[in-house]
Structures
1.
Amino acid sequence: MKEIAIGRSRFQFVVGDITAQDTEAVVNAANSRLAPGGGVAGAVHRAAGPGLWEECRKLGGCATGEAVISGGCDLPNRYVIHTVGPVYSGSADDPVLLRSCYLSSLRLADKKNIKSISFPALSTGIFGYPVDQAACVAVKTIREYLLGTTGIETVRMVLYNDEAFQGHLSALDALKCRWESGLI
């Protein structure tokens, strides 16, 4: 695990299972229907049990870059925040939409007074976003958010393997050099 302090919050990086985190909320890398599927969405729905799909059907879906919230059902988390990341196309819209996923999720967590939240590496699985590029967007967006007014105490990036973990630490190191030198 790697942890840094940002403002009054902790920003953590771990390799692990998003469905086994002890945070108040976990983020589901959802599809627009919020349906069970592959990757993170499939894992979250399997671990949460059929009650999650029942609740998600009532939410009516979610647009790319936005977020909605449900209960955690059989997960160890009180909430699941569902966000739909962009399918990577190499266009200028990709980082804008990915940034929006993180911001929408963090804002929703603050609105619900959630103190701790775990994110997967959004859009880097079957949606094809290159890990190094997605990591830069995630780290920069979360850092900026935590420097603002927030009640969130812990944000954890739960990475699915060592390559994704190292990619996020590299993004953190590159960004840290820029903020320590006063470039951002």
2.
Amino acid sequence: MFQIDAASPADLEVVQGLLSEAGLPTSDLGVARPQFLVVRERKAVIGAGALQRFGAAALLRSLVVADGHRKRGLGRQIVEALEQRAAEQGVGELILLTETAADFFERAGYRLIERSRAPAAVQESAEFRSLCPSTAVCMGKVLTAAHSA
């Protein structure tokens, strides 16, 4: 059995290790301070995802599930939990960059958008400016009132 909840400061080292193993950016985490949710199985962190807020929009980033725990629907559940949290915080649009998971996010309702169509504040993030290559696919999803119900 697993649970999804807010990451504690003690979880962040494990999360950073998972991100590094998956080849995802970590160098800006101290400055960007995204809000992480983690998946725990018997108290061990086995997955994570984060929101980095920019006013009414947020960057969905750092989605990772540990090797050996993939293909169990955990990624989808993390995304749903992040969407719920974003809606509760008044975020109306989620933006993400991905090099490997466009199909996964498309199945979750995200649509391809031009990087230049992302909100200006999101475009100013380190994730957009330098951490994710220009070949990364940009996707977005408008959150509806149904997400907060």
3.
Amino acid sequence: MTVVLVPISHEKLTELRDTRITGRVMGPVTGFAVTAALRDTFGLAVADDEEADRTALLLAGLKSLMSYGKRLVVVVDASAADDGDPLGEVTVPGISLHDMTAFFADAPEAAPAVSAAARAVAGLDLDAAWDTVEAQALMTEHDLLWYGPEELDAFLSTWALVFLD
């Protein structure tokens, strides 16, 4: 099993929550993991595990921002196919709520910076988005908040009030 950080939309996160009732699996999904290629790209040694994990989280958050306009990332323990991507992109055949160990999202006070970064990265690829001033400011000034799986129901209702347009 590999720790995979999956960029996700609010709607897909709700769908993931509902897998506890439906028993269905979502997938395949693309996520980010600490791979040899990611370590090589960012010059991270094996001893740099914490920084490698943070880098994978930042990449997943940025991909979520690019895809959905918000930074929302699910952490799953799953079998993943390492695609050899230099940024650690991997493919997971399927996930359910049972696989989720945590999730990350922006704090409400980050909403203006999230909106500015989302506009700046629209239409860019991940490499170009990473280098934008707005994305770097968002990643530097606003850490993603960690949530446990038991907080999912409350989060989904509260987050919708703050971040959904």
4.
Amino acid sequence: MIKEDKTAIINSIAEKLKAYPNFYITDISGLNAEKTYQLRKLCFDRGIKLLVVKNTLLKKALENNNFPEPDLYSVLEGPTAVMFCESANTPAKLIKEFRKTGVDKPELKGAYAQECVFVGADTLNELANIKSREELIGDIISLLQSPAKNVISALQGNAGQKIAGIVKTLSERSE
């Protein structure tokens, strides 16, 4: 490969690293054509960009972006595919689901999710349990709604009739 081609590929990877806040480094080698197609289709359906890369080019792209976590460089050995995504847990869930089809790939080598580095296949469950921004907002909203719902239900139930009676009695006394 000539130097201009390598530079173009490095720049392309660097742009993806800037565009997507989370990425997973995986090994998809050994998948047959059908399984690779299924994996790529699942990735496309879930908004994940899957890119097979050379380790040296990925490392250069990380260095060009001043990537602060050199721990991830240690996993850049053997065949490598990168999953770029907006949501931190979507690729982990996809990997777990895909493995249920009877294959042991893709194998997680490492990940950069929510500004944290995860190294090794044993971190897959941890990554899958990360809540997305939307899930966290939903949890906060439900926590904020809970006290209001309790007050409303109390006012609508028997306690509400008692409160209404007390308010009516107090208003009659003031007249």
